[in-house]
């Protein structure tokens, strides 16, 4: 789950903070248009998250698949889609409309993550979901620092499309790798340590009562 957050945060940082820079410095668009173009992917991810939530709830309610598979599939769709779109963008050259269209579509599909790994903390531990989410999101936020530094390193010799393509390749590969690890190893089942305290206390009380009954049978 933590790795999935890291991969997702990396892609999000590029979208929310660095994409306007790409439009203005590499594609040489006017700043006001760069802001407009950069807002479209953000709108798309909101729409994607709404649609995916209805689909995921429908699959779970109808018993089509269990919650673990839902989380894995929706995370995979979002992670691989944004990775593929980032790679395709590197072949678009200076065609701004094409870059915007592809990236907007990628972020729309990326919205499926909100029915994927973003809810894993609640699935694994309803009691400690806030703590788990905070830890995972904290590790993911590290890439809010890494992304600008990486972009600065790659574009040091010039903010060219070629140099920016290196940025997109790194983010795409990292997102794909973290998505794959999540799809292979994750679980959305409630963990033993994540059950509500009342359930654990009830189970402990039940064990104590069983021991007392057993002793009373041995020593009437």
TrEMBL record:
Task: Fetch the InterPro entries from UniProt.
Answer: MFS_Na/Anion_cotransporter, MFS_trans_sf
Chief location of this protein? membrane
Give the way it sits in the membrane: Multi-pass membrane protein
Gene Ontology biological process terms in this record: monoatomic anion transport
GO MF annotations for this entry? symporter activity
Q: Which superkingdom does the taxonomy of this entry point to?
A: Eukaryota
Gene Ontology cellular-component terms listed: membrane
Q: Where in the cell is it found?
A: Membrane
UniProt KW keywords: Membrane, Symport, Transmembrane, Transmembrane helix, Transport
Q: Which Gene3D superfamilies match?
A: MFS general substrate transporter like domains
Transmembrane stretches in the record are 34-56, 77-110, 130-155, 167-185
Question: What is the residue range of the signal peptide feature?
Answer: none
Would the keyword tRNA-binding turn up in this protein's UniProt record? no
Q: Which SUPFAM superfamilies match?
A: MFS general substrate transporter (SSF103473)
PANTHER family in UniProt: FI19708P1-RELATED, SOLUTE CARRIER FAMILY 17
Q: What is this protein called?
A: Inorganic phosphate cotransporter
């Amino acid at each position: 789950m933590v790795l999935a957050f890291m991969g997702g945060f990396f892609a999000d940082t590029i979208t929310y903070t660095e994409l306007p820079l790409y439009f203005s410095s590499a594609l040489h668009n006017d700043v006001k248009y760069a802001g407009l173009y950069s807002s479209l992917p953000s709108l798309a991810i909101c729409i994607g998250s709404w649609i995916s939530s209805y689909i995921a709830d429908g699959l779970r309610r109808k018993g089509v698949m269990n919650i673990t598979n839902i989380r894995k599939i929706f995370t995979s769709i979002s992670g691989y889609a944004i990775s593929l779109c980032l790679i395709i963008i590197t072949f678009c050259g200076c065609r701004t409309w094409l870059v915007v269209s592809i990236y907007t579509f990628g972020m729309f599909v990326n919205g499926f993550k909100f029915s994927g790994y973003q809810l894993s903390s609640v699935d694994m531990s309803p009691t400690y979901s806030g703590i788990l989410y905070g830890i995972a999101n904290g590790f993911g936020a590290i890439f809010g620092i890494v992304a600008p530094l990486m972009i600065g390193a790659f574009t040091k010799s010039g903010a060219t499309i070629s140099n920016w393509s290196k940025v997109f390749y790194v983010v795409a590969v990292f997102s794909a790798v973290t998505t794959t690890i999540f799809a292979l190893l994750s679980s959305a089942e409630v963990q033993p340590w994540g059950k509500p305290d009342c359930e654990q206390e009830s189970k402990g009380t039940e064990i104590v009562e069983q021991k007392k009954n057993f002793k009373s049978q041995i020593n009437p």
